[in-house]
Amino acid sequence: MTDDVKILAIETSCDETAAAVSQNGLNILSSIVASQVDWHRKYGGVVPEIASRKHMEFIEPVVEEALNEAKVELKDLDAVAATYGPGLVGSLLVGLSYGKSLAYALHKPFIGVNHIAGHIYANFISKKNIKTPVICLTVSGGHTDLLYFKGYGEYQIMGRTKDDAAGEAFDKIARYLGLGYPGGPIIEKKAKKGHEDAINFPRPFLNKDNYDFSFSGLKTAVINYIHKKTQKGNELNIYDIAASFQRAVIDILTEKTVKAALDKKVKTVILSGGVAANKRFREVLKKRLNQYKVPLYYPELKLCTDNAAMISTVAYYQYLKDDFAELNLNADPNLKL
Ligand code: KG4
Ligand code: ZN
Known about the structure:
The chain is an alpha/beta fold. It has helices at about 35-40, 50-70, 90-105, 115-125, 165-175, 185-190, 215-230, 240-265, 280-290, 300-305, 310-320, and strands spanning about 5-10, 15-25, 25-35, 80-85, 110-115, 135-140, 145-150, 155-160, 270, 295. The chain has two domains: about 5-120 and about 305-320, ATPase, nucleotide binding domain (Nucleotidyltransferase, domain 5, 2-Layer Sandwich); about 130-300, Nucleotidyltransferase, domain 5, CATH 3.30.420.40. The radius of gyration is 20 Å and the shape is globular. The structure holds 5'-O-[(R)-(carboxyoxy)(hydroxy)phosphoryl]adenosine and zinc ion.
């Protein structure tokens, strides 16, 4: 039966414990996310050991809440899915083991899902009729991937970061400035009060004739700037630093994405991952793509950051292709698309 498929999906690749139930892929019956950010904030980033422990604590109630909210009983499920990579191995193992055990106990098929595929599919939940092929930019705390996406399982990686991910750069600069974690939303807020052109930070790889990214040089330039100013006893304008840094990241992401869209002559560009939540980025990229009449879509905010709804949608497409996993599937922290 493929006309009413209910899938329970579990996502524990980083620091959010999430479970969701979908019906026929795009109809999300429930999506529960328990964030651990309060436990990691004081360390300025995710502590893997704490993340795994919190996942163990949260997984049971989160799955129960997802089933209750969806008004679905375990026996009604057609399959159980879980993210098996990429991510923190200890975190991945909690959700994956839980999902596999549940599938085994229920005698239901198990589906292993790639987290990055999840981020891409979040777009199709938010907007139901996106026509492929598209250019997809996935920008999160661990990834900066530019993809030519033709359909499920048909991706061509056009470029990716050679060092830090875009979100990682936001997090590191925020930590350096003592602003807290996660850095992206905090920098975005500070940037609103600053001038984007106040400081001319470098835009590495911007003029290189490829689709790769590099953010580590930009991060170093910002840190050097702060260091020099402080050494001279000058006051720091956090707002201008945040705005100018953010704009440098935005320019790099925007120009590479526009170039890819024009080269591949696609009709649509989609965004995914936590950095796609950045309103200024959406605004700048949208305006640039508008010049070429290429529309930009991005998932609603709660689907940009880690969640299990996006995992359940990918799982549905795998279900249709009988793409099930054996129960000895292991976590793969470096899983590629
Ligand atoms: O996709 P995600 O929730 O988790 C990963 O798979 O990494 O992305 C988290 C990343 C963090 O680095 C966070 O700082 C960044 O996305 N982020 C943002 C914003 N919201 C989250 N970066 C820039 N602007 C934002 N508004
Ligand atoms: Zn993610």
